[in-house]
Design goal:
- With about 700 residues, the protein is of the alpha+beta class.
- About 40% of the residues lie in helices and about 10% in strands.
- It has 25 helices and 19 strands.
- Helix 5 crosses helix 7 and helix 16 packs across helix 22.
Length: about 700
């Protein structure tokens, strides 16, 4: 059915100029203004023309959708105004007709300003000595909404909506100009996508879903009339209120107008008016706390996505602008995680049945060669409801401060502003990798004593965890047994600052004042304890750093997405400093160390896991020799514990995946987990890699060259 009334709009075209002039004259009487003359008038006219051109291309804010890896399952949405832009062809003709009947009977007969409507409003307002009737056409209303939606400052919002004569005249001028730029169908489409219907429903897609749980294309005449009636006053005519009397009266008014315009027959309207308003209310999910319960653990991935997004220059100049773009830009975002790997991670850190402990056990799995995060799980429930949590274990937290378990939304695994946890001997990877990249060999030998006094580090004297670690060590045995004195000596040889800078190139960031001070250019070369992992780090950082070693020294920035699409379906892009346009969701990788150095580090890193290196010997025992048997394929990695076992770590990797797991009390780092729980991260990583790679072809690591073996 045509959207136009039975009387052809073409008959009214000759009346445009005379009618428009009469309308502006009436408007000048009805809404008096101080005349604008001279340069000011020209400047104002130019500004209006520029703004009109902008509105001709501007689109309203639109909801962004976060999808599961299948690209189809919606996990949640991000919005300030729930809206999905919908083409006119996907909107029921009944809805198109109903909004014209409700708001602008003469929409197809005027050219932006309706002279008859202005005159009618002038007479009504004069009789009431006030403003009892408006004269805004659909086009004028759209101009007002578009100005409001495109406003970037509170002042612009106020100017767009202020009830002032000058605003009204500008609105009329812009409406007339806009109808020269856009067709009636274009204006109607934009209006229906901009109007507010109440219940946080912006635009017809949101209104159809929230009130009737259907698409705009499926709306019946009665449903369309109900929604069209809301635009005038969403709260007054709210059909979801306990009393539907006013909503029903307004709906019937719209139905009567639809009959008068020839859209519906009198008989069908009479029958429709006897129907009650039947709603099927739906409230759309918003933000990460709305991720469905069955995928609760995915909320942490969602939260990481938000933190990652807020750091991307592609979406704005600062954090607030970027998050605003997320909530208004209409993006389609697909998570990078793998459901199979995520399920394995959740199972092996006890996300379902082990959430009642102050000790957080978390794991992050990253993909070498892409940096994509494949899993992120922790023994916590992702929830904002923390009132029932026990009190914090930190005596310095103050009274009535709740602990982070069982419920939390804190980014315990990284990607946010929390510093992380001391990672212990997992940091030995960085001086070893730096030494290999600097030309040292795997067979670099040192007679490591139980205790070693460092003159370079001003007499600092660390010792080993066990006397069995003393004696002649190479990189293989030193790494496999986690010999502190060997690695302090090795760090001296290559320079602590070189190890620190390499860690930075592999994605580590210093988030505490102490770490920042030690990592500073003036202090880094004296940071002897760096190799022992006294700095805080997150599982996300450590998984991604070790993933770079698995990828032959090629570091890829951690990334929570596999795809990001703009509202028009094109991939979201950004320009590099060199002016090259790239997709935001594409891996961003760079070679940090030579492939041979990375392969050599991997060969040594097979020793801690009970695996057999390709080129050397591990010295008879290792710190996590059960891992190889559990994973059932070539695997490398490193254990890490801190003083008094306040936290324990294991980072492990195969050619396909890298995983980092920790156990610690995020509320109180002095609450030691104890030696008895140090095996938990080892088991979490080993079991997760085993389950994630089940059924996959077995791949071996590429051995290092003879030159770097030494």
């Amino acid at each position: 059915m045509s959207n136009r009334p039975l009387a052809a709009a073409g008959r009214f075209v000759p009346l445009l100029r005379a009618g428009l002039i009469a309308g502006i004259v009436v408007a000048a009487v009805a809404y008096p203004v101080v005349a604008l003359t001279g340069v000011g008038a020209k400047a104002t006219a130019h500004a209006v023309e520029s703004k009109t051109r902008l509105l001709a291309t501007a689109l309203p804010a639109e909801t962004s959708y976060l999808y599961a890896p299948d690209g189809k399952t919606v996990l949640t949405m991000f919005f300030e105004e729930y809206r999905q832009y919908t083409k006119l062809s996907d909107i029921s003709p009944h809805m198109q007709q109903a909004i014209v009947a409700a708001e602008d009977n003469r929409f197809y007969r005027h050219h932006g300003v309706d002279p008859k409507g202005v005159a009618r409003a002038f007479v009504a307002n004069a009789k009431s000595s006030g403003v009892s009737q408006g004269a805004s056409t659909l086009t004028m209303q759209y101009v007002r909404m578009a100005l409001r939606d495109s406003a970037s400052t509170p002042k612009e919002v106020q100017e767009a909506t202020a009830q002032t004569p000058i605003r009204k005249v500008k609105e009329m001028r812009m409406a007339v100009d806009l109808e020269k730029e856009l067709s009636k169908e274009d204006i109607l489409e934009r209006y229906l996508n901009s109007a507010y219907f109440g219940h946080r429903a912006y635009g017809i897609y949101a209104a159809s879903e929230i009130f009737f749980s259907k698409t705009p294309k499926e709306l019946t005449p009665v449903e369309a009339a109900t929604l069209a009636g809301l635009v005038k006053s969403p709260s007054q005519y709210d059909p979801a209120s306990s009393d539907q009397k006013e909503a029903t009266a307004r709906r019937n008014y719209v139905l009567d107008n639809m009959a008068r315009l020839g859209y519906l027959s009198p008989d069908s309207v009479a029958a429709a008016k006897t129907e009650p308003i039947r709603l099927r209310l739906t409230y759309p999910p918003n933000d990460c706390a709305s991720v469905p319960e069955e995928w609760n653990s995915w909320g942490f991935l969602c939260d990481y996505l938000k933190n990652w997004w807020s750091a991307q220059p592609a979406f704005g100049d600062n954090r607030l602008d970027r998050l605003d773009k997320l909530r208004r830009g209409g993006y389609r975002i697909v998570l990078s995680m793998d459901p199979k790997i995520q399920a394995a991670a959740e199972e092996n850190v006890g996300t379902k049945g082990n959430t009642g402990s102050p000790f957080a056990n978390g794991i992050v799995v990253a993909e070498p060669g892409t940096g994509r995060v494949k899993a992120m799980a922790v023994n916590r429930t992702y929830s904002l409801q923390v009132n029932e949590n026990p009190l914090s274990s930190n005596p310095e937290a103050g009274p009535n401060v709740r602990a982070n378990y069982p419920n939390t939304v804190a980014p315990l695994m990284g990607g946010g502003d929390l510093p992380g946890y001391q990672a212990g001997s997992t940091f030995k990877m960085f001086p070893m990798l730096a030494a290999l990249d600097a030309g040292m060999t795997l067979n670099t030998t040192f007679n490591a004593p139980h205790s070693y006094r460092s003159e370079i580090y001003d007499g600092w004297q660390p010792s080993n965890a066990s006397g069995a670690m003393s004696g002649m060590q190479t990189m293989w045995s030193g790494f496999g047994k986690s010999v502190n004195t060997y690695f302090v000596w090795l760090e001296e040889q290559v320079g602590a600052e070189r190890a620190v800078r390499l860690a930075e190139q592999l994605g580590l960031r210093w988030r505490t004042d102490v770490d920042r001070e030690h990592a500073s250019p003036s202090r880094a070369n004296k940071w002897g304890a760096f190799t022992l992992g006294v700095s805080d780090a997150t599982p996300l950082e450590m998984a991604n750093a070790y993933a770079a070693v698995a990828a032959d020294g090629r570091y890829c920035e951690a990334m929570p997405v596999s795809a990001i699409y703009n509202r028009d379906g094109t991939p979201a892009t950004f320009k590099t400093p060199g002016g090259i346009e790239r997709e935001v969701a594409k891996p961003r990788c760079r070679q940090v160390v030579s492939a041979d150095a990375a392969r050599a580090a991997t060969d040594a890193a097979r020793c801690p896991t009970g695996d057999t290196p390709a080129k050397g010997g591990c010295g008879g025992w290792s710190t996590a020799d059960s891992v190889r048997g559990t994973v059932g394929r070539p695997v490398a990695g490193k254990t890490g514990t801190t003083d008094s076992t306040r936290s324990a770590w294991f980072v492990g990797y195969t050619p396909e995946l890298a995983a980092a797991s920790f156990i610690s009390d995020p509320d109180n780092p002095f609450n030691a987990v104890g030696d008895g729980q140090s095996e938990i991260p080892i088991a979490a990583v080993a079991n997760t890699l085993r389950d994630a790679l089940k059924g996959k072809p077995v791949r071996d690591f590429i051995p290092p060259s003879d030159r770097i073996v030494g």
